[in-house]
Amino acid sequence: MNARRDGRNNRVALFDGIEEGGIRASSLYSSTSFHEIDEHDNEQALDGLQDRVNLLKTLSGDIHEEVDSHNRMLDRMGNDMDSSRGVLSGTMDKFKMVFETKSSRRMFSLVASLVVLFLIIYYLTR
Fold first, then answer.
1. Which residues pair with 23 in a beta bridge?
2. Is the pLDDT of residue 38 over 80?
3. Which of 33, 49, 52, 78 is deepest in the core (most CB within 10 A)?
4. CA distance to 10, 34, 62, 78, per residue, from 49 (Å)
5. CB–CB of 28/42 below 8 Å?
């Protein structure tokens, strides 16, 4: 929640003083004449722009770090999925071998019936 609030504060600080037509004329010009620019106001506007550029640079660096961390996380997830797919296919191959032989089929039915019997006893004593 604080990160979202900080993002809004950064956004407000970044676009503070900018209107639809650009930077406010009152902050740039000290007199009513369009061609007379006060040097002090010009320096203030330049400092404001420099601060905004630095803020944008910081935000873009933070976004870059976030994207890199998400890419690393997605790569790890992809590798984990590949390894789990290999384990699952090996398990399925072993499961198929169990059902191919008759003695294994009997063993499976014995184990399955014991599991069912255990579950029935568990629910009756509960």
1. 18
2. no
3. 52
4. 14, 21, 20, 43
5. yes
